[in-house]
Amino acid sequence: MKQISASCFSPRGITLTETIVACACAAFIVTLLSGAAMMMRRETGEQVSKANMAALYISHVEYAASNSGKQWCSHLDNFGLVGGNCSSYVSQIQCPPQQILGSTADGSLWAYWVSSPLCPPPSPGDCVNWPTLLPNSFGSSDWFGSAQMINVRSFHNYLGGRFYDSRFYAPNDTTVYNAAAVHFNNPAEFVYMSSAVWSSYMMSAAAMWSPEVLRPATSGGFQAPTFATAFTRQNLAGAAYPELKSLMFEKNWNQGAPTPNRRYNESLMSRPVTLFYDGHVANISNMVAYIDDKRSTIQSGNGLWCRNAPSTAGIGYYGGRTSHSVLTTSGILGRDVLDTRCGIGGVDLSALLSDWGGTTIDLSQDGVVSGPDLTTLLSNWGCPE
Q: Which of 71, 53, 57 is nearest to 173 (CA)?
């Protein structure tokens, strides 16, 4: 039988230099693969978020079909009869809507109850919970309101019937997503926790108020929602610029944020996944929204979002670089961007150069439009893949 002999060679030791080179190469490859894996997870999470938004739009359409064409909200038109005052409403008008989160497995019904002598007994709760029925609380420290409570019963009944449906949560909103994920497979409508985990998405609060609340600057700007028509419910088909007005968006900076739990408007680098009124889903580039707001201000004297709405932290929503979607000028009749471009391009360069030496399109926040602003703009040129 023919034997196959193994080849042999004279063994040689590995030098220190070769060892260092090998380790360096291995470290580089690990870093490269880790970065690629992180980017892949981020991109996958972004695509899941976009799919969630598409599903939520169907829910919005179904809600509107069942509610005379109105978009989802928690207030009623007649809140304006008493200037939005809870005490007057519950004593003079009617039993208010109740912000119901859902029933737990043991049959307990959880809600932000607002009591009234006009409600059938028992009537728990009090006016402390009234702000949960309003789109947002102007001038409060947390801006909280129904715009951030999309996973309550009155809406989740049009999705899957559960508060902790995974489609309410963006995977790249890691802290929020992980806190809610433990209940994704729980069949109960609601699971009690010491603090409810609200959706990663919020409605455009501006579009839930009457357009007269956030008027253009040349018409006086913010008007407190104490007038009779302030709470007029808006039609889902009522957007004047449906392809340019957000209906719902990621409320945190989820794509590429240096740390979790950063608000969507903390940086011009943020690109929240957004559902528009025409049903299409895309990222709003905060830098595009910022420049468009400045372009609009230069052209008409009116920015795309309202500057004088009450705020406890600087100007606008938590004092961020932009307040698109939350404080959109003219609400549902306004625009959050001027066109559907996906990223920085020629129109932005032209706008910046036309303001050269001025102070309006100050991307770098150094007080003057100059070289650093041009560098920032060019480094973000084009549409992210």
A: 53
Residue 261 lies in a domain: yes
Question: Which residues have CB under 8 Å from 147's CB, separation 6+?
Answer: 135, 136, 202, 203, 204, 205, 208, 326
> What residues contact 362, with CB distance under 8 A and at least 6 apart?
368, 369, 373
Report the number of distinct structural domains present in the chain.
Answer: 1
| pLDDT score for 384 | 81
* The predicted structure's pLDDT at residue 14: 54
275-304 pLDDT tens trace: 999 999 999 999 999 999 999 999 999 999
Contact call for residues 144 and 230 (beta carbons, < 8 A): no
Is residue 144, in this structure, part of any structural domain at all? yes
Burial of 271 by CB count in 10 Å (0-12 exposed, 13-18 middle, 19+ buried)? buried
Q: How many CB atoms neighbour CB 278 within 10 A?
A: 15
Report which of 258, 273, 311 is spatially closest to residue 51, judged by C-alpha positions.
Answer: 273
Residues whose CB falls within 8 Å of the CB of residue 332, separated by 6 or more in sequence, listed in order: 204, 206, 207, 211, 234, 238, 239, 240, 245, 277
Instruction: Write out the residue range of the structural domain in which residue 219 sits.
Output: 38-342
Pairing state between β 273-276 and 281-283: antiparallel
Domain assignment present for 368: no
> DSSP readout, 314-372?
SSSGGG-S--TTTSBTTGGGS-SSSS---SB-HHHHHHHHHTTTSSSS-TT-SSS-SHH
Residue 253 lies in a domain: yes
Low-confidence ranges of the chain (pLDDT < 50): 1-12, 29-40
